[in-house]
Amino acid sequence: MVVLGLVTTKRGDLESKDALKRRIEEASKYVDADQLCLSPQCGFSSTVDGNALTYDQQVAKLRLIVETAHEVWG
């Protein structure tokens, strides 16, 4: 399995679902798509003080990951 950490946990702005799909498609040129996973790049608290994201921003990023994965892999 190859985990693609394409969603940043450092900033609150939401990535484009289309951009994520394009990057997954690009990765599938090198690894079978069934062996790919989508995730945040790291945890939401990667420093002792955490990252400057609100709870709602964190939820939105996780929702984006789930929705994108569902659309790509079913």
UniProtKB/TrEMBL annotation:
Gene3D superfamilies reported in the protein's UniProt record: 3.20.20.210
InterPro entries in the record: Met_Synth_C/arc (IPR002629), UROD/MetE-like_sf (IPR038071)
Segments crossing the lipid bilayer: none
Domain Cobalamin-independent methionine synthase MetE C-terminal/archaeal: 2-70
Coiled-coil residue spans: none
UniProt protein name: Cobalamin-independent methionine synthase MetE C-terminal/archaeal domain-containing protein
Species this protein is from: Actinoallomurus vinaceus
